[in-house]
Amino acid sequence: MFELQDAFARKFHYLRLSVTDVCNFKCQYCLPDGYRPDGRKSFLTLDEIRRLTRVFAAMGTNKVRITGGEPSLRKDFTAIIETVAATPGIRKVAMTTNGYRMARQVADWRRAGLSAINVSVDSLDPRMFHQITGENRFQEVMAGIDAAFAAGFEQVKVNTVLMRGLNDGELGRFLGWIKDNPIQLRFIELMQTGEMDELFSRHHVRGALIKEQLLRAGWQQKVRAHNDGPAEVFWHPDYVGEIGLIMPYAKDFCASCNRLRVSSLGKLHLCLFGDYGVELRDLLAEDGQHAALQLRLREALADKKATHFLHQGQTGMTPHLASIGG
Ligand code: SAM
Ligand code: SF4
C-alpha cells in the first residue's frame, strides 16, 4: 500500500540514500577543502541499509538512488547495490558518482543490479574540470562513461553544475558531445549551502538563461509525466542526447518534489534544505522494528513543508551537499 504521501498530496516513490560523507574530490561548490575526516562517524551498515530499504519499499518506494559523498568509496559498495536491488518492491536502483571508479567497476555494479547512473562532469575541458573539481581526472571519468555504455547501460545521465565565469560558456561544446551520444545532460543551478561564502553570488547562473538558448536553437520541452521529478527535459530531432535543467530557484520547483532523503548517519531529511533530520538509526540496529519505523516515517511526513526557504536566504542545516547526498 502506498503511504509515503504528505499534506500537499505529493507522493514519494523515490528514496535518495547516502551511504557515506567521504569524498576524494574537492569540488569548489561542495567540499572545496576536501573531506575532513571525523573519526566518530560510522556510516549505515549493510544490515541497516537492508532494514531501511525494506521499510521504505513496504510503504511504496520503488526507486532508490545511492549517493554520498562518493558512494563508490565504500568497500562494500557492490554489496550495497545487491542488497537494495534484492529488496521486494524496488524496481530501480540508481547511483550518483563522480565517476572515478566507473571504468574499473561499472560492469560489476550492473551485474549487482544497478539500473541507472548519474555521473558528474562539470566541464569538457580537462583543465577546467580540474579547476572546478580539484582533481585532474577528466580522462578517467570519460573512460568510465564509455565503460558504462560497454557494460550495457543504454543511457547515462551527466550532472553539470552551472558556474558563471567557469563553465557557462561551454554550452556549444556540451551540445556537440550529446549529438550522437545517448546522454541526458543535466545542468544544475548552483545551490547555496551553509558553508558557502561568496562563491554563490560570484558563480550562480540562472538555468533559465540556458533554457532561452535551447528554445531559440529549436529544442523542445518534453511534457512532464505524472511522477517525474523537478527536472525540465528538452529534446531536439537532430540530437540523440537530451538536456535536463534543474532550477531549484524557479517558481513551483517544489510542487513536483517526489523524493525523500536518508543521510549516511541514518537521518531522514524531508528537504535538502530542511532545518532538521529525523533520527531513524535507533530503530535500524535489529530486525523487528518495522512497525515502529513505519510509524516514525508517517509522523515525519505529516510535517513536510510545501517549499524550501532558499529565496529568503535560509539554506537550512545542510553545510554542503556531500553531507546528505544532493
Ligand atoms: N560525489 C557524487 C557526485 O559528485 O556525483 C555524488 C554526491 S554529489 C553531492 C551529488 C550531486 O550534487 C553532484 O552532481 C554535484 O555536482 C551536485 N552538487 C553538489 N553541491 C552542489 C551545489 N552546491 N549546488 C548544486 N549542485 C551541487
Ligand atoms: Fe565529492 Fe560529489 Fe561533493 Fe564533488 S560534488 S566534492 S565529487 S561529493
From TrEMBL:
Cofactor or coenzyme needed: [4Fe-4S] cluster
Keyword Iron-sulfur belongs to the record: yes
Family matches, as Gene3D superfamilies: Aldolase class I
Pathway: Cofactor biosynthesis; molybdopterin biosynthesis
Binding positions (S-adenosyl-L-methionine): Y29, G69, S120, M191
Residues involved in GTP binding: R16, R65, T96, K157, R259, L260, R261
EC supergroup of this enzyme: lyase
InterPro entries, per database record: Aldolase_TIM (IPR013785), Elp3/MiaA/NifB-like_rSAM (IPR006638), MoaA (IPR013483), MoaA-like (IPR040064), MoaA_twitch (IPR010505), MoCo_biosynth_MoaA/MoaC (IPR050105), rSAM (IPR007197), rSAM_sf (IPR058240)
Subunit structure: Monomer and homodimer.
NCBIfam families: moaA
Name of this chain's protein: GTP 3',8-cyclase
Species in which this protein is naturally found: Zobellella iuensis
